[in-house]
């Protein structure tokens, strides 16, 4: 990892790694700023504390104690601690578990910002939309074994999967999977006199592909 054996690597290597576990912040009685200033002394080349606070969107909470933060804000503080040492590689374990949709989207923006700054991120998640939104490459793990690693667009042959066409006909919703969606749409248009009611055309979602891969492993 990063060119070294983790079992033998020294302090300089460990300073290149950031880890954010599912619960990593128990400092309830000191402020955000104090927490970060305290932990920055542990690193050889820490990021500027003000810069880190700005990066995770806690500017208005820098003087707030840990116990005064919301769940989403505490998670941002966890990430602040994870990036404080200016890591080249950041591990995030289920970072948005328990977040509401708005908080999740805000956190995604934070992750994208870190990636744009050059940080490599290894993220574990059960949210398939999160993996699709954030990942350059996705790895599927089943029973402790890596099933496949690929881009979200190509995982499990997704890029070659049949197109799903759904429409309404005779008062019922119908669905067909096809390699030739244009031909099917032409046929439907002729049969239904032009307009195809409630038409949707899509490829399988990442969740569809994930489920088929896991079921195939069973």
Report the radius of gyration as a whole number of Å.
23 Å
Helices and strands, in order, run as HEHHHEHEHEEEEHEH
- Uncertain runs with pLDDT below 50, 5 residues or more? none
CATH architecture term of the largest domain: 3-Layer(aba) Sandwich
Total number of domains:
2
Structural class: alpha/beta
For the sheet with most strands, the description reads: 3 strands, parallel
Residue-averaged pLDDT, rounded? 88
CATH-defined fold name of the largest domain: Rossmann fold
Tally of contiguous helical segments: 8
- What's the oligomerization state? single chain
Could you tell me how far the N terminus lies from the C terminus, measured between alpha carbons in angstroms? 31 Å
Number of strands: 8
Helix content: 25-40%
- Walk across the major sheet and give the strand order: 1-2-3
CATH class of the largest domain: Alpha Beta
Quick structural gist:
This protein is an alpha/beta fold.
Structural key phrases:
218 residues, alpha/beta, Rossmann fold, 2 domains, three-stranded parallel sheet, 8 strands, 19% strand
């Amino acid at each position: 990892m990063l060119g070294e054996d983790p079992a033998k690597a020294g302090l300089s290597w460990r300073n290149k790694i950031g880890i954010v576990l599912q619960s990593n912040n128990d400092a309830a009685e000191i402020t955000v700023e104090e927490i970060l200033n305290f932990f920055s002394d542990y690193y050889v080349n820490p990021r500027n504390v003000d810069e880190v606070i700005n990066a995770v969107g806690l500017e208005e909470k820098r003087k707030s104690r840990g116990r005064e933060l919301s769940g989403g804000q505490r998670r941002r503080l966890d990430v602040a601690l994870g990036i404080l040492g200016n890591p080249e590689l950041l591990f995030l374990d289920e970072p948005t578990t328990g977040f509401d949709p708005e908080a999740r989207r805000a956190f995604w923006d934070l992750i994208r910002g870190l990636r744009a700054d050059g940080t490599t991120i290894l993220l574990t998640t059960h949210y398939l939309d999160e993996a699709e939104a954030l990942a350059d490459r996705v790895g599927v793990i089943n029973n402790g074994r890596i099933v496949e690693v690929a881009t979200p667009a190509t995982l499990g042959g997704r890029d070659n999967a049949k197109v799903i066409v759904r429409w309404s006909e005779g008062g019922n919703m119908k669905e067909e999977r096809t390699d030739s969606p244009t031909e099917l749409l032409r046929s439907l248009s002729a049969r239904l006199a032009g307009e195809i009611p409630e038409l949707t055309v899509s490829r399988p979602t990442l969740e569809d592909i994930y489920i088929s891969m896991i079921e195939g492993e069973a």
